[in-house]
Amino acid sequence: MPRHTFQPTSLFGGALTVDLPTNFADVSKLRQVPDNQEVYIDKDGFTSIIVDITERVPSSSDSNDPLERDAKALTTHLEELVGVEDAAETVQVWNTTETQISHLSDDIPAYTLIATQTHKQREGERERQGAPDFTALILTLIRLEKEQTDILVTINVPHIKGEYDEEEIDLAMGKQGELIGDAVEYAARIWESFDVKDWGLFAEI
């Protein structure tokens, strides 16, 4: 039984639609958001969902294995999200899988990875109050070859000391904890509901 309720949400003026949790708020009503992004944040927590329309990263090989073929694109987008310099030291990718987006055609490849990023304190930098112990990322990449576009759906899940049960989490042993478990549920609903209503969007952004 799902723990959360969802509502159909129009993105980019209705060109895209997706079901998002009812307790998430549209950040653009609070501050400016880039034209190629939609950002929603949990009103009762710290988790955010970002839908990002970006230029397509070329495939890295002609392999028959889709995951191998698009591995470079996944890595490139992940590095852009977390910072190229920090990626090798602070990011651990736990799982990468092919993903089916229910309303899109089977020949449109999509992939999801689950990763964690630890906060790296730079020399001379004070420890920030409320800085997360780590942030979990669920990144779904949808590859639109004809449109020369990549769509990224990123669920960011900061884990701040005192806001989660540390004993519940051991990703190496498959223990995700409540916050990541919630994010997995959000991702699954996004895969089921994500739809493109106006393909002309990708010529405009």
UniProtKB/TrEMBL annotation:
Any Gene Ontology CC annotation: nucleus
Record has NAD as a keyword: no
Pfam families noted in UniProt: Mog1 (PF04603)
Alphabetic keyword roster: Protein transport, Transport
Coiled coil stretches, renumbered: none
Record GO biological process: protein import into nucleus
GO molecular function: guanyl-nucleotide exchange factor activity; small GTPase binding
Source organism superkingdom: Eukaryota
SUPFAM superfamilies: Mog1p/PsbP-like
The family this protein is said to belong to: Belongs to the MOG1 family.
Full protein name: Ran guanine nucleotide release factor
